[in-house]
Every structure is written in C-alpha cells, then in structure tokens.
Please model this.
Amino acid sequence: RGRRQPEGSQGSQGSQYDTDPATAPESSDERDSEQWHRLYPPISSPGTRQRYKADFGQELRRYKELCAHMDGLNERLAQLAAQLDQVPEDSAQYQALAEEYNHLKDVKRSPEYQDKKRESKTLRNKLFHIKRMVSDYDKL
Model:
C-alpha cells in the first residue's frame, strides 16, 4: 500500500452524510418518507407535539454521536494526509503515517462504518420530518 490515495473531489470537508441524487436509490428516500409519515403523521394535540419533541431530542443525540464519530475519523485522515505531504516517502515516519492512514481508509470502507453512515442519513431524514411536523403544528 505504502502511498496514500487521494481523497477525490470531496476532500476532508465533503459531506459524506448527504447522498448524491444521481447515485442514491430513489425508492429508499421515498420509502423513508412514507415511513416517517406513518410513524409521525401531522400533529393534532399538544400531547402528540410533546411526544414528537421528546423523540426528536433522543434521536438528535444519537445523530450527533454518529456525526462526531465520522467527523473525527475524517479529520484524522485529513491530518495524516497533510503530514504525509510533509515527510519524505522513504522515511520510517512516512511508513508509520501511511499505515495509520490506510488503516483509517479501511475503517471507512468497513460494513460497520457504512452502517453508521446509513443510520445517520436515516436519522437525518427522520429529524427533518419530525421538525417539519412540529413546525406545521406550531403555525396553526
């Protein structure tokens, strides 16, 4: 492996949480939307509003945990990339940095990381829906 691979067009600041409409399966977003409408229909009482707000708070905590984990990994990759650009390729330091960099790239490709990425996208959609339902109720 030795030499790190370029990050591509996203770079370290790319939004891995958003999906590209050209590559995302259309039915997945539609299915999510239908699911959220079934689970969280328009609010008709203060009690329902309170339940939605409680659900929102709980899910927001999980979403923030997932994002913090993924952001931390991406920040470390960016740091390593910058360090690798500063160190001679034939040095022991370069080898150590490259090993860590490649390990973290493997972590990002792992099924566990991909599951976290999907979960964060699902939670994001759920949070947007709940927020919209509460906002619509508050406008009435």
About this structure: The longest helix spans residues 46-86. Residues 43-139 form a domain with the Helix Hairpins fold (CATH 1.10.287). The chain has a mean pLDDT of 84.
